User: What shape does this take?
Amino acid sequence: MFRIPSFHQMSESEMPFAEAWQIMERRGQGDCLEGMKSMDRLWSDYIASDDQDDDEFFSNWVYEVNAYNVVYEGMSKLFLEENK
Assistant: This one.
């Protein structure tokens, strides 16, 4: 999950699960998991660079990082239910 600064965080009403899924799916060209992996790579490249500005990163990718977190949280509930 991304630690999104509060200024860039979206509420559940602003980023419902279905919309978050679609955003990640588009990013992954039809594959939600690939979209999430793409965001992981984007973040890894960002933190490896010398020119880091978290506010700029989150401002540029606000919808994608919020969508990532919504899908991550939504899918993790499936695994928690399985372990009960």
Q: What stands out?
A: The two ends are 23 Å apart (CA to CA). DSSP finds four helices and no strands in the chain. The helical segments are 17-27, 32-48, 54-60, 62-82.
